[in-house]
Design a protein that fits this description.
With 338 residues, the chain is of the alpha+beta class. Among the domains are: 2-95, no CATH class; 201-317, 60s Ribosomal Protein L30, Chain: A, CATH 3.30.1330.60. 28% of the residues lie in helices and 7% in strands. Strand 2 (202-204) and strand 3 (209-211) form a beta hairpin. The chain is rod-shaped.
């Protein structure tokens, strides 16, 4: 409304009415954005009254005059566009040219610019919306400081300031999501996966799932001590990840005591370990349990140290038997307890 009045010369002949019309239009727009429809209609009505007054006071043949050929309210002597009319949009209205401004000077016209007062950063990432993208990958590290502005930092406490994801922090070939020791180089084929050999609880071979520490039981009983739970949990992890493995849980003793006592104790301990693995989710049909008593020593029972080595639990693979594998397995952890 006020635009038409301005083009008819109201800026020259009725500047007060034109200014009031613009003020009330702005107030109406503000109330509309706030959701106050009644107030918006009130101010719009007031604006219309002032536009009508400005129009009545500004007949084009009197107010534009011979010095304004395109009748846009800008005198010809300062009008840089004598044909097209000024658009009167608050942007360079004095030059007499219609315009779609580029307020922030980013090369994107305001009509298409979602951020008309903030210049696009032109980094080949969403450059057409007119908005600066200060953190393209949304990882919290500004692009100016981000060595990998298109790849989000994984924020795992390892080199998080460079803005680049590190999928394998210790570069040991085990992705961090699977690595139990993500910041310390370790072994891919041992449990805990990705941990150094000194920390490995389980080693997988063609012959067995070999534990590096002995399973400890209560003296003379088949009750597993809690200190051995992490070892059995590591065995469980191996079996979960290797669904084809079939295992015979073997129990062995030293030569102290009668044959029947040792055979019974080793058998009960083997079954106790099998029961633990089943409780952790390993299918029962994948596990056999057998006690061998004192019949399969690792070393001669000639000292307490040797007897400690002979008291053991082993997890022998039965799904495949390499020619080099002895049956029952003749290898075991370094120590044990009766």
């Amino acid at each position: 409304m006020s635009k038409k009045a301005a083009e008819n010369g109201a800026k020259l002949c009725a500047p007060r009415e034109l200014a009031l019309a613009d003020v009330y239009l702005e107030l109406a727009s503000l109330e509309l954005r706030r959701g106050e429809l009644g107030a918006a209609e009130h101010f719009a009505g007031r604006a219309e009254l002032h536009v009508q007054a400005a129009t009545l006071q500004s007949p084009p043949d009197e107010c534009t005059g011979p010095g304004d050929l395109d009748a846009d309210g800008v005198p010809d002597d300062v009008d840089q566009c004598l044909g097209p009319r000024e658009t009167w949009n608050g942007f360079e209205d004095e030059d007499g040219c219609p315009d779609d401004p580029d307020t922030d000077g980013d090369g994107i016209l305001d009509s298409k610019d979602l951020c008309p007062t903030a210049a696009e950063d032109r980094d080949q990432y969403q450059d057409e919306d007119g908005c600066p993208d200060e953190d393209d990958d949304l990882d919290g590290i500004p692009d100016l400081l981000d060595a990998c502005p298109r790849s989000g930092e994984d924020l795992d406490g390892y080199e998080d300031q460079d803005g680049c994801p590190e999928p394998d922090n210790d570069q040991d070939g085990v992705p961090d999501v699977d690595d139990q020791c993500p910041n310390t180089p370790g072994e891919k084929d041992r449990e805990p996966k990705g941990c150094p050999i000194k920390d490995a609880l389980v080693l997988v071979t063609d012959c067995e799932v070999k534990i590096t520490q002995q399973i400890h039981f209560a003296l003379g009983k088949d009750t597993i001590k809690p200190e051995s739970y992490p070892i059995l949990d590591a065995v469980t992890d191996v079996l979960v990840k290797n669904a084809s493995f079939q295992i015979e849980v073997q129990g062995h003793t030293d030569d102290k005591g009668s044959d029947s006592y040792n055979l019974d104790l080793s058998n009960r301990r083997a079954h106790a370990v099998r029961k633990y693995l089943v409780a952790r989710g390993i299918a029962p049909e994948r596990l056999a349990a057998r006690g061998y008593g004192k019949d399969v020593p690792l070393v001669p029972n000639i000292s307490e140290e040797n007897r400690s080595l002979n008291r053991r639990v082993q997890f022998v693979r039965t799904d495949q038997r390499a020619e080099s594998c002895q049956s029952p397995a003749q290898t075991g952890p370094d120590s044990g307890k009766r």
